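To: structure desk
From: M.T.
Subject: fold request, one chain
Message: Could you run this one when you get a chance? Sequence is below, nothing fancy, just the single chain.
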Amino acid sequence: AEINVGGPAIVKKKKVKQNSPAPEVVVAANETGTKSIDKPASAEVGTEVTAAEKTIKNDSEQKQDSLVTEVKEEKKPENIANEEQKPTEQPVTKKETKKWTVGFGINGGASNTRWGNLIGRGQQAFDATPLTSSPGTGTSYSGPPIYIEAPKRGLSAGLEFFVQKEISNRLDLRAAVQYNYMSTHIKTGSKVDSTRLVSNSISNGVNVDNFYRGPSAGSADDYTNRYHFAGVSAMLSWKIVKGKKFNLSWENGLAVSRLLSTNALHYDKNLRAYYRDFGPFKKTQLFINSGLSVPVINKTGFTVAVNPFISYGMSSVLKDNTGMPSHYVNYGIGLRFLFPPKK
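Reply: Done. Structure tokens follow.
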């Protein structure tokens, strides 16, 4: 430092290197001598200017961005603004369409050809002993009296393949193709292998190769009349009990069946014997069906149901309703197996 004696004091600053935290030293010179004073450190001028410039620049950029955003919003097309104002449309949930399911069923029980109405007692038996002929007719009868009983029930069985669809929360529709076997039991006498000509109210001039004598005391054999049917049916099932653990449905419907074959016998009073003739049987039969259905297994769509049923033939067994007509009756219990629908 330089000192001027007798003159005014001269102050000189020592420049401190940038980024140095050391304080500035001020040297003062006067008449009496020199004196050093410590001054607190402060940011350099260059550094202060740079920070200020950055602040001003940032403020300027923010204002420019704000102005640009406002201009963009003002110039936004009206159609885009309208689209933004439209409420978000909710997706339309399509109602699930119920599918047809397939299955099969088997059944077994008892059947009969009832004489008379279903709720009436009907004719249980009749005396087949012919009246004594008047003299000069040339007709004579021999042998013990014959007493014909009404057919007794026999075994029945059935098989069906069906499709089923739920049409409401409580109703199911089912259509099926089916086969049914029915049978009855009667008493006959011994079989005779001989040709006879039979003419009566149901058979007109039929030649038979053999026949069975009528039953008599001490001479009676069991004979099984067998009937084979094929047909179609439609059922409406109503869920009268619908719960998580137990379901009960009441089923009602109609069936149209065709008699395929039978070995059933007719009785002829003149011949005093049973004979076989397929012609008098009414081939097309209308049945009314009713029953219950109780599912016992229901896992992942696969269902096994137990169904007690009854089926009554609305049509008579024979074409000619001479005397008291007879009708088919079939009742028993079945199992149905229903498979889940294909996805």
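Reply (cont.): The two ends are 103 Å apart (CA to CA). Let me know if you need anything else for the meeting.
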